[in-house]
Write a structure and sequence with these properties.
This protein has a domain of 158 residues. 52% of the residues lie in helices and 7% in strands. It is built from 11 helices and 5 strands. A hairpin with a 4-residue loop joins strand 1 and strand 2. The longest helix is centred in the first third of the chain and has 22 residues.
Length: 228
């Protein structure tokens, strides 16, 4: 009993520490960011790239930019309703993803950045530096200790289908998943309402956390269609 109490106390202190960090803002919370960025730029300048000398992107001449930010208020409300134990479970598995819910989209910045977009690499290029987050930078930004920085990540030959991935993440049946998948243009999506209902009603706390993380990735990190 005493040992259990000590462990809970340490966890509570760690959670309070995270709350204090969040108050300081998103950009200045990780001390290693500058060091990781410097390392990344140095390596890139040493190794170079495969683009032909003199390559200039013509994207700016024919690109129309429309910036729309999804309403993340419901995600924030769910996060605010969770107790410390559930939040700590999320932090342990997914790092500081919830910080992204408070990041504001700067429309003017995105329009200015368009001229630096490099369609050949699908990233922003500033002179000889490509703005592509590395595994190390993701680890530093999100404090996600689950990343294995000494492991080579490659695309699997046989990937599970979209529906199979959802079955694994949500813990729901194939029939439940199939009934909620929508086709939006070239992409298959799931309505946010379906994920929200699942987060609020799922009996498995770990699955609640997994679906919440999926929602952040789908609505914030890799958005495809509004409301999905």
């Amino acid at each position: 009993m005493a040992f259990h109490f000590i462990i809970k106390g340490v966890g509570h202190i760690q959670l309070l520490d995270r709350k204090l960090i969040m108050k300081k803002g998103f950009l200045d919370k990780v001390e290693d960011n500058a060091a990781v960025r410097t390392w990344s730029e140095t390596i890139q300048q040493e190794k170079g790239d495969s683009l032909a000398d003199g390559y200039v992107s013509g994207l700016w001449d024919f690109t129309r930019i429309s910036v729309t930010q999804k309403n993340l208020q419901e995600l924030r409300e769910i996060w605010d309703q969770w107790n410390d134990e559930v939040r700590q479970l999320f932090y342990n598995n997914y790092g500081d993803l919830p910080y992204l819910l408070d990041v504001k989209i700067d429309k003017h910045l995105f329009r200015a950045l368009a001229q630096f977009w490099n369609p050949a690499y699908s990233c922003f290029t500033f002179r000889k530096v490509h703005l592509v987050p590395t595994i190390e930078e993701y680890v530093a930004l999100l404090r996600c200790s689950n990343f294995q920085v000494d492991k080579v990540y490659s695309r699997a030959v046989n990937l599970p289908t979209f529906s199979k991935k959802l079955v694994n993440i949500t813990g729901m049946s194939e029939q439940w998943v199939a009934a909620r998948i929508k086709q939006k243009g070239d992409s298959k999506c799931v309505p946010w309402k379906s994920l929200k209902d699942l987060i609020l009603t799922h009996p498995d706390v770990r699955k609640k956390v997994d679906v919440f993380a999926l929602s952040i990735y789908g609505l914030v990190v890799f958005p495809k269609a509004l409301g999905h």
